[in-house]
Amino acid sequence: MGSLSVQCSNERPSTYSARERSTVFADRWLLARAGLALVLANARYWTTVAPKVRVELARWSARAMQIEDPDLRAHALHTLEGEGFAAEVAATLATLTPHAHRAVAVRGIVALEVMYDYLDGLTERPAPDPIANGRLLFEAFTDALDPSADLQEDYYRHCSFSADGGYLRVLARTVKDALVCLPASKALAPAMLQAAARCAEAEVLTHAAAFTDTSEVERWARATASGSGLEWREYLAGAASSVLAVHALIALAGDERTTVEHAAPIDAVYLALGALSTMLDSVVDYEEDAENGTLAYIRHYGEDRSMIGDRMVDLARAAARRAHDAPRSVYHLMTLAGVAAYFTSAPSATGDFAWPVTSRLESELRPLITPTLAVMRTWRRAKRLRAHGGRR
Fold this sequence. Notes:
Farnesyl Diphosphate Synthase; 16 helices; 0% strand
């Protein structure tokens, strides 16, 4: 692979001196505010968000049971069972939403995440024309965020199956109806749609590469990364996770103080956070992915863990600086800590491939990450104990 300086434009990704790093990650006042934000977010999540998420996931499981096609039904139920936690995590962003609109924001975020995970799995399947099929399926995803879309498209037209009992369309309609009820959704709609379109194209081209080659997805990433401040490989990873940016925008759309000027800074924060999340996921799952032949984002770097570690640190710094400059900055810094802590606390993070990268990132993010990392490790231990208890 090329060196770290490989770019798709003349713009070089942001780099930080030791002094700049200490300003972002070791500012005591900033850390105190981030710690308070973590406490408040946890209180809001467990009392007003988590119960609503459970209700919404149960609703979608019941709706998935009505899917006529047995293959699609099995896929939808398997996705809800295996990826339901992703919706719980996404809904943590609703702690940013004022209480009056929080329940509606949760409904929209959960429906969007369930739809994203459902489409993600469908577009991984072989198709005569995987790009045309993927784009049409993901049109439901973008239509859900497009105020002018009427949801009348036959999204399964290029598939060998289509009898989903209206499941995909109902997911999209739920997102659309939730957005109508959020006071700032009109101001943020263009940014939501742009992030969703970026996410859809990255997902489709990446999955199609498993059946064709990687040249088209690389060309797209190089062409569109210009101006993002990210190197094309990180941009690709962030684009594929841009559902995270849409979730953040939905959460902030519930706050009537949010304006159109807030959209670009928020999108920039979560583009970098999405890149970090996707790449960390790829690092900690490296051995498993290599075993089952899954194409992972980290393959674009070969096996140079020093390079990967450098890029992870740069991404964390970029995300921190963007968060610092965005509205509601401490909440985004808290999310950065949460993303990093979730992956670096995973059992596979101590594997031979992952450990040099995850340990370096942990060290870079201290002390910002310290309280969240302690919470994540406690949560994982409790989860293991419950699992062992359930097998007795």
